[in-house]
Amino acid sequence: MFFLNKIIIIIIPFLPKFVARFFSKKYVAGTTINQALDKIQKLNLKNESATIDILGEHTKKTKEANEITSNYIKIIEKIHTNNLDCNLSIKPSHIGLDISYELALNNFKQILESAKKYDNFIRIDMESSKNTDISIKLYNELKKISSNIGIVFQAYLHRTENDINNIDPRSNIRLCKGIYKESSEISFQNYDEINNNYLHLLELAFKKNIYVGIATHDERLIYKSKEIIKKMKVDNSLFEFQYLYGVPMKKINKKLKNEHFKIRSYVPFGKDWYDYSIRRIKENPQIASYVIKNIFSKGM
Ligand code: FDA
């Protein structure tokens, strides 16, 4: 199975889009806002919070970046009208960072104003290391306007300890391992090193009283995070567990819910589903058996 996994990972980007769509649709909550909100309502009924993401990144035209901004504002209004438990996750390059810092800042400001009005919250997703400094700069600027904003830190980057040390202690961060390909000069490459750093950073954040979204599907890491929470007697109001929509977490989430921990699902949707889906398929360690099962059960 190991070699089959490797082969599938290599060939998936070369397959026609409709084939990739077939295998990746469980990771994406649809292509329209209403489809995504419908899925979020179902999650809320299962006692899970959500964070919604419009798929896409590296927008090249100002008009498009502004349209995406308007859509995020519409979503905040719809979340309010439908009384959903859902905040927003936004990639800076999606709303204009590749065009200019000012455009991204201005678009974030508009979304943040709306989030403030409806008592919602937006999180700046973290992209590759090329954007780390500028994303933190955006965050610090926006934090001056409102506390309804958070950011993401990646445990694989060497710099993250320093970043957490320098951030406002009244921050709300998401801590994840990190998904982008980074060089060994700036990032840990091996599983144990990344996990050890993750746990070190989690302790550091808790020491500073920072709110942490513990974003991982790694059972060992979740278990060790709970040990830290217990050892440091961290109050439940200072953290939540987060997972990506479609990743099989039923058993782990059930256990976390029984332990009265807050859970949030990251729910992506939209027409630009391709790049995100390929990233998720590549991360699935059971990709070969998943593909085979789908071929036989759905008769592809
Ligand atoms: P790891 O990759 O070691 O996986 C651990 C286990 O989880 C696997 O063995 C498998 O069982 C299961 N698993 C993981 N992915 C799976 C999949 N696709 N399908 C099936 N099973 C799977 N990254 C980033 O750089 N910037 C960001 O802003 C974010 N945001 C973000 C939000 C949330 C809520 C989450 C959970 C993750 C992110 N990430 C992210 C992605 C993150 O950096 C990381 O790439 C993935 O979470 C995979 O890492 P794990 O912690 O799951 O560990």
Compile the SSE list and pairings:
Elements: H1 2-11, H2 17-24, H3 33-45, E1 49-54, H4 62-81, E2 86-90, H5 101-117, E3 122-124, H6 132-143, E4 149-154, H7 160-166, E5 172-176, H8 191-207, E6 211-215, H9 219-231, E7 239-244, H10 250-258, E8 263-269, H11 274-283, H12 287-298
Parallel strand pairs: 1-2, 1-8, 2-3, 3-4, 4-5, 5-6, 6-7, 7-8
Helix pairs in contact: 2-11, 4-5, 5-6, 8-9
Bound molecules: dihydroflavine-adenine dinucleotide.
Would you kindly provide a written description of the structure presented here, covering whatever features stand out?
This protein has 300 residues and is α/β, with parallel strands linked by helices. It has helices at 2-11, 17-24, 33-45, 62-81, 101-117, 132-143, 160-166, 191-207, 219-231, 250-258, 274-283, 287-298; strands at residues 49-54, 86-90, 122-124, 149-154, 172-176, 211-215, 239-244, 263-269. The chain has an eight-stranded parallel β-barrel with strand order 1-2-3-4-5-6-7-8, surrounded by seven helices. The protein is globular, with a radius of gyration of 19 Å. It starts with a helix and ends with a helix. 39% of the residues are buried. The mean pLDDT is 92. It binds dihydroflavine-adenine dinucleotide. Dihydroflavine-adenine dinucleotide (FDA) is lined by residues 125-126, 152, 154, 174, 176-180, 215-218, 242-244, 247-248, 266, 280, 283-285. Dihydroflavine-adenine dinucleotide (FDA) binds at residues 125-126, 152, 154, 174, 176-180, 215-218, 242-244, 247-248, 266, 280, 283-285.
